[in-house]
Amino acid sequence: MTTSVVPGFYHFFFTWFDPIVSFAGAITDFVSPDFVVNSLVPATLRNEAGVNPNYRFIFQQAGGGMVAVAFLSGALLRATNELKIWKYVQTAILLIDFAMLYSAWDALKLQGRLSPAAWRGEDWGTVGLTTFVTVLRIAFLAEAGFTKARVGKAE
């Protein structure tokens, strides 16, 4: 048995939702780095009123990466139905998801806020959304919800 096609839910999610969220994240990186930092580091815990302009390049690079993710999801995945390509793209983005979850964990640990009871709405949004898409990517890679089709000679 082999998998024949990407199920509709995954197709919709990875070619519509994912690129929109990634592009929105890129725009936020470019135009509002303070909002990005505040998503895991409250202003009350920072030494500066805003993000130091000397560090903007970090957000611009992150934004560029998110634009690439949006393009791959919104364009490449629409250009092919080949499951192998879809899996390569989702594996690459899963690596980004893991890095984002690790960085969130590290930020919250440094602040002594690992307990979900200490999280703010921004923390829940950042960690929650990233966890959701990470689980969805893992489910896709495990082919959860896929219809199996027989391949081979007809009897």
Tell me the helix content: 55-70%
Low-confidence stretches: none
What structural class should be given to the helix and strand makeup?
mainly alpha
Bin the strand percentage: under 5%
Distance N terminus to C terminus? Answer: 15 Å
Count, helices: 5
Task: Write down how many β-strands occur, each being a DSSP E stretch of 2 or more residues.
Answer: 2
Give the SSE order as H and E letters. EHHHHHE
Oligomer: single chain
Largest sheet geometry: 2 strands, antiparallel
Instruction: Name the shape in a single word.
Output: elongated
Strand order, main sheet: write it out.
1-2
Overall mean pLDDT: 92
Total number of distinct structural domains: 1
InterPro entries: DUF7704 (IPR056121)
Organism: Massariosphaeria phaeospora
Protein name: DUF7704 domain-containing protein
Domain DUF7704: 4-143
Write the layout of secondary structure elements.
Layout: E1 2-3, H1 8-31, H2 33-38, H3 56-79, H4 83-110, H5 121-141, E2 148-149
Helix pairs in contact: 1-3, 3-4, 4-5
Describe what you observe in this structure.
- With 155 residues, this protein is mostly helical.
- The chain has one domain.
- It has helices at 8-31, 33-38, 56-79, 83-110, 121-141, and strands spanning 2-3, 148-149.
- It has a two-stranded antiparallel sheet.
- The two termini are 15 Å apart.
- Pfam families: DUF7704.
- The chain crosses the membrane at residues 57-76, 88-105, 125-146.
